[in-house]
């Protein structure tokens, strides 16, 4: 299964590769043309793999044979080279599971204003989040006073910390 998924990832990356060319010659003429293939942006590969992950195919585990689809289907469709496959469904990472070493997301820090993977909406699994207002006191605006000592002011910084319920 892992070998198949590794190969599928390589195929997806290869499909996304760019074909680029550059001309060399006097005053813009194309006397010599050099072409090459370049890797896609990392984000582009990640997005393509995420889309494939969402459509991944469950398989039954078999020994020393090609993987096959799990469950009975009327029409047999072969697994394509760029399909991602799995034997077991991914566990629910929202809730703790000691047997699998999953801590869950309760108490985890999150970003209230983000829409990325660190957002409270995603990380807290719909349970909401707590907001804690923290005040930090630190030395700031320090100056060297002649001779031989440093004089600083005291500054307060107020931060909001968000953690999943």
Task: Describe it.
Keywords: Developmental protein, Disulfide bond, Extracellular matrix, Lipoprotein, Secreted, Wnt signaling pathway. With 165 residues, the protein is of the alpha+beta class. The protein has two domains: 1-90, no CATH class; 95-165, 2-Layer Sandwich (Endo-n-acetylneuraminidase fold). Helix content is 19%, strand content 35%. The protein has helices spanning 2-15, 42-54, 120-123; strands spanning 18-24, 32-38, 57-60, 68-69, 85-86, 109-110, 129-145, 149-164. A three-stranded mixed sheet has the order 4-3-5, with no helix packed on it. A three-stranded antiparallel sheet has the order 6-8-7, with no helix packed on it.
Write the layout of secondary structure elements.
Elements: H1 2-15, E1 18-24, E2 32-38, H2 42-54, E3 57-60, E4 68-69, E5 85-86, E6 109-110, H3 120-123, E7 129-145, E8 149-164
Parallel strand pairs: 3-5
Antiparallel strand pairs: 1-2, 3-4, 6-8, 7-8
């Amino acid at each position: 299964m892992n070998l198949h998924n590794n190969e599928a990832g390589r195929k997806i990356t290869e499909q996304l590769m760019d074909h680029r060319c550059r001309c060399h010659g006097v005053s813009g003429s194309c006397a010599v043309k050099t072409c090459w293939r370049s890797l896609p942006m990392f984000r582009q590969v990640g997005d393509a793999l995420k889309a494939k992950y969402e459509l991944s195919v469950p398989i039954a585990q078999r020994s020393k044979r090609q993987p096959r689809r799990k469950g009975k289907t009327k029409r047999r469709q072969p697994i394509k080279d760029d399909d991602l496959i799995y034997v077991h469904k991914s566990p629910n990472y929202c809730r703790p599971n000691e047997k699998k070493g999953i801590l869950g997301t309760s108490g985890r820090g999150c970003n209230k204003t983000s829409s990325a993977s660190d957002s409270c909406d995603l990380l807290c699994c719909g349970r909401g989040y707590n907001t804690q207002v923290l005040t930090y006191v630190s030395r700031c605006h320090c100056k060297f006073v002649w001779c031989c000592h440093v004089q600083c002011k005291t500054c307060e910084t107020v931060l909001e910390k968000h953690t999943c319920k």
